[in-house]
């Protein structure tokens, strides 16, 4: 019984640590959008990461309405970076103008569970 109790304590400590990391990451993501240069770089890196995962020649990209201009501004560099990393031609990326992702949460408001 003591061994099981010890295992439960370890698992609880791991779970607490993971939850704390998720909370910190969500707070940091809310703050990063205020630094335009850093935020655009994050958007570019996310687009490149998505392209590397999908490995498709054409992609329909959805973003938040407030990020539309930032996403458009990083597409060219994201295509170049992806093409050089994957050693392929630049993909065609269309930004969806009819369907947007949910807006950012207000202070204290969350979209719910992300993970």
UniProtKB/TrEMBL annotation:
Keywords: Ion transport, Transport
Gene3D superfamilies assigned: ATP synthase, E subunit, C-terminal (3.30.2320.30)
Any one of the GO CC terms: proton-transporting two-sector ATPase complex, catalytic domain
GO molecular function: proton-transporting ATPase activity, rotational mechanism
Keyword check for Transport: yes
Family listed: Belongs to the V-ATPase E subunit family.
PANTHER family the UniProt entry points to: ATPASE H+-TRANSPORTING V1 SUBUNIT E1A-RELATED (PTHR45715)
Protein name: V-type proton ATPase subunit E
Originating species: Triticum turgidum subsp. durum (Durum wheat)
């Amino acid at each position: 019984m003591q061994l099981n109790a010890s295992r439960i304590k370890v698992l609880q400590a791991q779970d607490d640590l993971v939850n704390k990391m998720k909370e910190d990451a969500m707070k940091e993501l809310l703050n990063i959008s205020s630094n335009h240069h850093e935020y655009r770089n994050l958007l570019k890196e996310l687009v490149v990461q998505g392209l590397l995962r999908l490995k498709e020649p054409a992609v329909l990209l959805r973003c938040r309405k407030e990020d539309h201009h930032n996403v458009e501004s990083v597409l060219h560099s994201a295509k170049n970076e992806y093409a050089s990393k994957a050693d392929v031609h630049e993909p065609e990326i269309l930004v969806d103008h009819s369907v947007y992702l949910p807006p950012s949460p207000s202070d204290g408001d969350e979209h719910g569970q992300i993970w």
